[in-house]
Amino acid sequence: MAKQKKEKYYTYADFLEWDDNVRAELYDGKILLKTIPLRVHQSIISNMIFQLKNFLKGKKCQVYLGSIVVRFFPKEDNSDDNVFLPDIIVVCDPGKLDDKGCNGPPDLIIEIISPSTAKYDRIYKFRKYQNAGVKEYWIVDPDTKSVQVCILENNRYVLSIYDETEKVPVHVLKKCVIDLTDIFAG
Questions:
Q1: Contact yes or no for 170/178 (Cβ under 8 A)
Q2: Is residue 10 within 8 Å of residue 81, measured between CB atoms?
Q3: Backbone conformation region of residue 83, classed left if phi is above 0, alpha if psi is from -120 to 50, else beta
Q4: What kind and span of H or E run contains 149?
Q5: Is residue 106 a contact partner of residue 134, using CB atoms and an 8 Å limit?
Q6: Coil, helix or strand for 71?
Q7: Can you tell me the distance from the alpha carbon of 10 to that of 32, in angstroms, rounded to the nearest whole number?
Q8: Dihedral angle computed from the Cα positions of residues 115, 71, 170 and 176, in that order, rounded to the nearest 10 degrees
Q9: Tens digits of residue pLDDT in 15-48
Q10: H or E segment and range at residue 33
Q11: How far from chain centre, in Å, is Cα 31?
């Protein structure tokens, strides 16, 4: 019987050694390379950031996009094996932030799916985010022009789906409403 080659196990310490141009996440010690987002993906992110930034002006919560590192359970020796780079996060506790990113679950994570990431975002990240205690997780689908909103209640996500014509309340940001007509425009 042939010996199977053992896949290398990576940690945040390894992640810190990689070239800054490498866009990758760690999921239970495995590397998941991130592809360059499509134009529609970028457009949705820009539109979402614009609405969130305007709402958060003068408030303690901050919105971050793209390559900010999220570690749910950071270890002092950097041996944690899950590192995420969500499309958008909102953090209301400045104590969770350092120069590299967010240490602990953000209040809100938004992922814009693509054909190559749909399963990962809908299943694997869904589980990780739920188990880490992310209060609100949005999965934005450019193809169906819909948003799946997951609200954490009793350690489980409760799901709601909205289409491109609706306005969606952001549960972790009182009085914040995102107009999906503007999100999916252009």
A1: yes
A2: yes
A3: beta
A4: strand 146-153
A5: yes
A6: strand
A7: 11
A8: -120
A9: 999 988 888 999 999 998 887 778 898 999 999 9
A10: strand 30-33
A11: 16
SS3 106: coil
The two beta strands, 136-141 and 146-153, are antiparallel
d(CA 36, CA 135): 27
The identity of residue 36, as a single letter, is I
pLDDT in tens, 111-148: 999 888 889 899 999 999 999 999 999 999 999 999 99
**Strand 108-112 relative to strand 136-141, pairing:** parallel
Q: Which long-range contacts (CB under 8 A, 24 or more apart) does 51-55 make?
A: 51/178, 51/179, 51/182, 51/183, 52/88, 52/90, 52/170, 52/176, 52/178, 55/170, 55/173, 55/176
- All structural domains of the chain, each given as residue ranges with its CATH number in brackets, are 12-183 (3.90.1570.10)
Cα(1)–Cα(139) distance, integer angstroms = 44
Q: What tokens does 51 get?
A: 């609405």
**Token pair for 22:** 């490498």
H or E element at residue 88? strand 88-91
Residue type, 90: V
